[in-house]
Amino acid sequence: MKAQRTCSPAPPVSDVTTGAAPADENAQVRRALEAGYARYADAFKRKDVPAMAAMLTPDFSMRMADGKKVNRQETEALLAEVAAAFPAEPEMTITITGLSVRENKAVVDSREKIVGITLDAQKRPHATVIVETYRDTWTRTRSGWRFSGVELLTSHTTVDGGPAE
């Protein structure tokens, strides 16, 4: 009896109807974005605003939770302000909670947590925790994946275990 050979079809480059990337490509993109978030968190910890800014596309914009839109330069100033609020190196963790890839764009739902010590106006230290959720748009560029847009969905800050004022 002759053995039958079966061939599996090659995985599609993308789903023709939706443009969605196949699962293996999503896994590759996810790993690349996780590495990007790790670089971002490391730069934040070091308060290296130029390194964080280098991860933004030139036309980057951010929508705040109140709907206000800020451009790249304003975002860089906000990053510097937040980083400066922590005199010692804060810990930052970023978790991808959702991912959708379409060609050279990736939309990521993420959760960011910053833990550290901040100082009040009288220079007294306070344990501060910031937990935020975002919808980040990444664009694949010649130099790798970069943030092209960020939407702050929620933000919750506690100081010494209680809500921030």
Structural class comes to alpha+beta
**Helix amount, in percent?**
10-25%
Number of helices: 3
Low-confidence stretches: 1-19
How many strand segments? 7
Q: Order of SSEs, N→C?
A: HHEEHEEEEE
What is the CATH architecture annotation?
Answer: Roll
Distance between the termini: 80 Å
Major β-sheet profile: 7 strands, mixed
> How does the overall form come out from the CA principal axes?
globular
> Mean pLDDT across all residues, rounded?
88
Strand content: 35-45%
Supply the CATH class.
Alpha Beta
Integer count of domains: 1
Write out key terms for the chains shown.
alpha+beta; disordered N terminus; seven-stranded mixed β-sheet; 165 residues; Nuclear Transport Factor 2, Chain: A; 3 helices
